[in-house]
Amino acid sequence: MQASLSSSAPAPVKKKLVIMGRSGAGKTSMRSLIFSNYTANDTRRLGATIDVEHSTVQFMGELNLNIWDCGGQHKYLDNYLGEEKENIFGNVEVLIYVFDLETNNREGEYTLYDECLQGLETFSPDAKVYCLIHKIDKVPDDQREPTVESYRRALAKRSDRFQPGVYGTSIWDHTLYRAWSQIVYTLVPNMAIIKKHLYNFCRLTDATEVVLFERSTFLVVCCSSFGGEDEDAINEKYMSVSQVIKMYRNMCRQNQSAFRSVQVRNKHYTMFIEPFTKSTYILVITVDPEIEPAVTKANIEAARNHFIKLAD
What we know:
About 40% of the residues lie in helices and about 25% in strands.
């Protein structure tokens, strides 16, 4: 069954993201991996950030992310929290504070975090705050969740009104994609509408799972399922897909080949990963053996123009 729906395009919007943390925490490495198609190994050649590096990234069509990557050396931090405080913390939509798990001064990290929140309280009291407990790969597997939870409890006590989202992250696995997907999810202005129509697409086409990825970063935008799994479980699964596809696409680029799409068919399911709109890819899984792949591809094509109005 082919889907046919309609809606209006979102208005252009620009949102400021500030990335803060001590020097060497990994701020620029994660930004380069997510937004500049670096591999984890590529980030080893990055130098220290000098003052503030500004970049604007178009995300989901009309959403422009104005990213301020703040160098973490003491001389710059003193400036950010002094005469440049209003410039840094004014009109902030999201503050991303990166905690370095290799630090020898956790209390000093908390003090800097507190000062950043004071800047937000004054100049951007409605900003969202995310804390990334970075280099989680340095912690044994069975200690990772307790480590993140200890930060989560400590940060909850000192964050007052901001109620930060806290995630353990590493450039070496899907955890970084999970955290950044959650961050950008809150920034897409018409996300509720996109999610509703993705659910309708899933239902109308008898798909088991449908996932929308942002085309450039391959971050998960949203998902829908009729397979019985809850949304958190699906999101977790497809964060790994984000990382794998991004790595594969980089390999294609290095070999001067173009990544286009993926199709997998076996006795359990059929899966498509296809370019969808100008700013998205779509993943569709069907488990009904009577649904021919050509029908699924036709449904993707039929829905494309509708989602262009929503996502681009």
